[in-house]
Amino acid sequence: MIIEEITLYHLSLPFVSPFRFSHGELKSHDCLIVAVKSDGLTGWGECPVFPNPCYTYETLKTASHILTDFLIPQILGKNLTSPSHCFAFWGNIRGHNMAKAGVECALWDLFAKSENLPLYKLLGGKRQRIPVGVSISLQDSLSGLLEVVESYLSMGYRRVKLKISPDFCLLPLQTIRHRYPNLLLMADANCTFTLDDINLFLALEELNLLMIEQPFAYNDILDHAKLQSLIKTPVCLDESINSPHDTRIAILLQAARAINLKVSRVGGITNALAIHHLCQEAGIKLWCGGMLESGIGRAINLHIASLPNFVFPADISASSRYFAQDIITQPFVLNSDDSTIDVPQGIGIGVEVDWDCFSRFVVSQQTFS
Ligand code: OSB
Ligand code: MG
Q1: pLDDT tens, position by position, 330-344
Q2: Is 7 in contact with 255 (CB distance < 8 Å)?
Q3: Which pTM was predicted?
């Protein structure tokens, strides 16, 4: 398909409540949305990058610079024979996975639409309902925390992930576990601990956590391997896995029993598929992570999560958990009977942009043709 036109939108979508984790507090989802046109079709992608280089080194400004000055010009007017073909034109661009994922996911949507198929079918996905949970921010008080957990459980969510940090960890997790002995409960440290905290991780063993996500540095694999050898609770990697190569190292070192796979963090669907297959072969269980995406990124996450080695509930909650107003015509809802969200069944990513809402949240836009 000849890439005729690409539009880049900077969107700012207010959250229903601020998202707080160890990297700070976010009041809105600021992201870049990519629309790629070819042959009368439009493919959509999302680059869910933060304003600050806190989660990865990328920021809204770097992603917009890399997209505008390199990624987009290098594929514009080119005839791509598959979504992954873009990488042949990007060989001289190191890193910047989120910027790449924005365009690459739009190409997958475009190709799925040209084949008249829902994206998950093109990817080899089977499931049409994805088990999901909710990721809960750091809270100010234990009573407030229990109220938040209670409210999500009453909506039908059956898996809770709590953000933790050195001053919000053991007691909050004990409090939740005491109140809900059978809840699927896990913790995400976003890199705030070190091996010196080993006694804390040993104390967490009796809480029967589903896993502990990314306790150590964003670029560490070695210390995570050491930790996994010392505790029974599964260690899960998030920030540390940015490529199939990182995945091979983690597998070789037995650094984790689970991986939180985010399409945006690994540079798109091509790499996500490669990581999926590597983990499946190695017996490492996956689950689909989230970056507080809009309806576009959320749809892409649901499609990839339909692959067979995504075994734990995903960080893909209903649109209303994040936004009063999403940018798609049919916002995602939770099936409260089994804590799942449906994979969209239309062609491509299977969602339609609601232009009224969309244009209200556009901060700026630029078209390349
Ligand atoms: O570490 O998984 C994370 C959100 C933004 C950045 C990093 C993370 C998260 C979440 C929320 O945990 C996942 C979601 O609900 O989209
Ligand atoms: Mg995480």
Answers
A1: 999 999 999 999 999
A2: no
A3: 0.97
In angstroms, the Cα distances linking 4 to 20, 270, 298 are 40, 22, 26
Q: Which two tokens stand for residue 228?
A: 């996994």
Together in a domain, 108 and 181: no
Q: Within a domain: residue 42?
A: yes
Q: Tens of pLDDT along 57-75?
A: 999 999 999 999 999 999 9
Which three-class secondary structure state does DSSP give residue 99?
helix
Centroid of ligand 1 to alpha carbon of 62 (angstroms): 20
**290 Cα: distance to centroid of ligand 1 (angstroms):** 5
Nearest to 289 by CA among 314, 267, 272, 307: 314
Query: Do 72 and 146 fall within a single domain?
Result: no
Look up tokens 């990513």; give the residue.
Answer: 349
Q: Which atom number of ligand 1 is nearest to the Cα of residue 161?
A: 12
Structural domain that includes position 33 = 5-116+355-368
Based on the residue annotation, tell me whether 262 is a catalytic residue of this protein.
yes
Which residue has the least CA distance to atom 14 on ligand 1? 290
Average pLDDT (241-256) is 98
Q: 133-157, pLDDT tens digit by residue?
A: 999 999 999 999 999 999 999 999 9
